Amino acid sequence: MPGAVVNADNGDVACDHYHRYRDDVALMKELGLQTYRFSTSWSRVRPDGGAVNAAGIDFYERLVDELLAADIVPWLTLHHWDMPQALEDQGGWTNRDIVDRFVDYALSVHDALGDRVQHWTTMNEPWCSSFLSYTAGVHAPGRTSIRDGLLASHHLLLSHGRAVQALRERAPELDLGITLNLTVADAADVADPLDVDAARRIDGQFNRWFLDPLFRGAYPADIVRDIRKVDAAAVSAWQEAVRPEDLEAISSPLDALGINYYHGELLSGHPQPGPDGEPVETNPHETPGQQRRTASPFPSDEGIHWVERGLPRTGMGWEVQPEGLTRLLVRIGEEYAPEVPLYVTENGVAYDDVVGDDGEVPDAERTAFLRDHVAATLDAVEQGADVRGYFYWSLLDNYEWAWGYAKRFGIVRVDYDTQQRTIKQSGHEYARIIADRAI
What we know:
By secondary structure, the protein is of the alpha/beta class. It has 14 helices and twelve strands.
């Protein structure tokens, strides 16, 4: 879709992990990684939503075998945003039929890998594949519809629940979970009702919209009311789609909850003046490099403003806020999942790396980010959060969806012209932390 990806980049080759996975697993072994979190591609495993593609599933069999031979635990995610185009043409996540198709896909992957993979994640960041994709239009399929975002969010969660039920029935011994991207939404002034309400609405639309049905069997009523004020027809269509038995499936017991954290946000109900006195916005959920029309991913966004607080910013323009991760993990453990092990399944940072004359990649900012966020995770453990693991995003520089190749998150640099891998300073530090078991 023209203008959808920065620089019109595509994922045809990317970091070529498909052909280079053996060398990449050897690199993981060199770094001391204990677990590799990867996703299977629905479009590769069941092209067009049809029969299983043997060549596609065979790749994951080879990858898993290579990981196990290197004593690295495979951690499988079934859905990291991609979908066969034929299914999107039938409505994608807005079409309830997608639920059965997803369960079929999940069981196909289990047919091939169930004897070797213990850890299964259904969805990665359903907020992104619903509101960011169907309401904001930032990610594929690029729709800008409140109704479609609501329907997509429900069908994603229902697909998760039904897949958990199907996998649990087939193999009770599996560890089953879901991964959510979550934020810490703070009010700029806790004494200002407008600021407090702005923080409530972002927390509700980003965090609670997914946490509440998963752990409490209900969507947050206050957010339903907020969105109804904006688009009553969209809420009515969504309510018609939510059947009584759906929430029972969505709230199926979990063995793990993955939490992806990149930054928090400070929010106000008042416009924020810039240096020249004119209002300025610093919404961290925008993709400025896109050249096509997008919208807010938050259906109820009127009167919500992001506040600049002087924290360091990453190459994505996101604030660096390690203590937010501590508070987030403690809150989720206390309020939602007191008996469910937590995992930081993504945490990372993009900077504009420069290769030195000696061929090395000094990335002091990423190295500090890594240390500070691992420390923040340990702080949460000390405060009682049951956190069992930490995954950095990402091992390799990679194709970052709407950002294309403009942003580098890896602790290993990829030269996209030659596919040469170079461990960055942050990668060497990560290996040291793993080896020493200490910051």
